[in-house]
Amino acid sequence: MMILKKIVVFAVLTNLAIHLLAQSNPNASYIPPAFADTNRAAKIKALAPVIEKMYADFAEANHFPGYAFGIVIDGQLIVSGSKGYSDINNKVSATTNSMFRIASMSKSFTALAICKLRDAGKLQLDDAVSKYIPEFKNQGLTKDAPEITIRQLLTHAAGFPEDNPWGDRQLADTDEELLALIKKGISFSNANGIAYEYSNLGFATLGYIIKKITGIPYSDYIQNNIWKKLGMQAAWEYGKVPANQLAKGYRWINNDWREEALLHDGIYGAMGGMITSIESFSKYMALHQNAWPARNEQETALINRSTIREMHQPWNFNSLSPNYTYSDGRKCATTSAYGYGLAIRRDCDNRLFVGHSGGLPGFGSNWNILPEYGLGVMLFANVTYAPTSAINIRMIDTLVKLAGLKPRQLTASNILNQRKTAILALLPNYTNAKQSGIFADNFFDDYFTDSLKNDAIKIFDKIGKIVSVKELIPENQLRGSFIIECEKGSAKVSFTLTPENPGLIQEYRFRLMN
After folding, report:
1. Is 427 helix (H, G, I), strand (E, B) or coil?
2. What is the number of other CB atoms lying within 10 angstroms of the CB of residue 224?
3. b/e string for 380-417 if b means 16 or more Cβ within 10 A?
4. Separation between Cα atoms, residue 360 and residue 399, nearest integer Å
């Protein structure tokens, strides 16, 4: 076992270096995950012709007058482009600086504003809506329904009916008109808190709550506290957008484009009134991408990273698609849920999608990010309810596949590496295992030293002397595994630590690899 002893010595020295680093930097006990592939941006850039063709073919097939797109990697707009017209009559070409109405993509800005007020102690997400809008008191589908809360508005769980396309046409309604609707009594489709049903009314209500708390319209609050902080060019009222930048909206009907009347801004703008460009929206996507992973470095964004990650959680489940089929024909079950103003999706490859679609008369848009891959896509088009979601899901799937992108590789914590070193020192005989101090108090009631020793000896007899020990692959900060490569095969060690400080080994497996 001379080779094993040398490996153990090397591992001890490595662990010592990690320990010294931790002494000089207390935060080194948790090193944030990193991308294994540092050339991902270059790989995506190389796929620019594929990206452009996919969007161009889709736009032509779906009668987009004009469109603009962008691909964001780690907060940077890497590939972008546009085609067609933002204004057909005046032959104004669409560009990545053209200002498109992004409709329901606006919802996450309203949600972010609510979360920002929560973080500042101005409200609680489980506050009753009636605290800010008394007209909501005692409203609900049934008499035994609880008070409607802000969180339920954020996650489409307030019991309101699905209100597309009605809600789209309310965009310019005033505060007074919204309050009159509420005071008259809302028609509910579900009891609140038990179902998902998409509601534009819910987000208009959130816009009014922002005004009640801040004393200024939701539109001003978002402009001053989000857009300006991110350096975004955006507007709510189309009349405030430079004419040469404003994308006009169209409807494809009778084999021709008919211009749609642009809608003015009002209280329902909080659910879908925002106007912006690909160049500007990429800065917002960067905010969401940069919230991952959880880490110790100083906060630099306009809101805590943890709040953004909270927005990304699946707070309200809405569907399961067991037979979802990707464009290459493979079936891949997906689940969908709603976060705070965001659509959340996870597929059979365990990929997490975060984003939102938008649709209004004259416009359709979508953005999606894969936080674990640092990849994001967005597409804006100026035709009524442009089906942008499908092509963006297809684009993400294509880019991951063609570029060979991998999710972030979690970096092992110091304690996992320490326990790995100690385990290697005990193999194969587990001499003085009980005295080693690395096992939890349950361990020797669940595992027996003689059995561990006999199993290890049998494995090494079969695969021979150790050639190398691979790095530990963490599943999280307290669970991981590593491979021991030998002359005639390999073995795998897996273990889980307790919540004690420092964590001790509570669960353990040493098995032969196939």
Report:
1. coil
2. 12
3. bbbbbbbbbbebbbbbbbbbbeebebebbebbbbbbbb
4. 28
| Residue carrying the six token digits 């008070």 | 147
Strand partners, 383: 250
C-beta of residue 66 within 8 angstroms of C-beta of residue 83: yes
Give the DSSP letter of residue 65. Answer: S
**Distance spanning both ends of the chain, measured CA to CA:** 23
- Sign of the alpha-carbon torsion through 439, 445, 446, 451: positive
Q: pLDDT for 65-106, tens place per residue? A: 999 999 999 999 999 999 999 999 999 999 999 999 999 999
DSSP 225: I
Beta bridge partner(s), residue 235: 275
SS3 call for 450: helix
What does 236-257 look like in DSSP terms, one character per residue?
A: SSGGGS-TTTBPPPEEEETTEE
Query: What pTM was computed for the model?
Result: 0.90
| Residues with pLDDT less than 50, the chain | 1-29
Give 317-351 pLDDT, tens digit per residue: 999 999 999 988 999 999 999 999 999 999 999 99
Domains defined along the chain, listed by start: 2-31+411-512 (3.10.450), 40-403 (3.40.710.10)
The length of the chain, given as a count of residues: 514
Burial class of residue 331 in the structure, from the number of CB atoms within 10 Å of its CB (0-12 exposed, 13-18 middle, 19+ buried):
exposed
Find residue 68's DSSP bridge partners.
Answer: 82, 380
Closest CA relative to residue 389, chosen from 109, 104, 165: 104
Specify the residue for token string 């009891």: 191
The CA distance from 339 to 353, in Å, is: 11
Say if residues 189 and 141 touch (Cβ distance below 8 Å). Answer: yes
In which order are the strands placed within the sheet that holds 100-101? 100-101, 275-276, 234-235
DSSP string for 318-364: EEEETT-B-TTS-B--EEEEE-SSSEEEEETT--EEEEEEEEETTEE
- CB-based contact 156:167 (threshold 8 Å): no
**Which residue(s) pair with 494 in the sheet?**
481, 509
Q: Residue 305 CB: number of other CB atoms within 10 A?
A: 19
In this prediction, residue 33 carries a pLDDT of 64
What CA–CA distance (Å, rounded) separates 343 from 353?
8
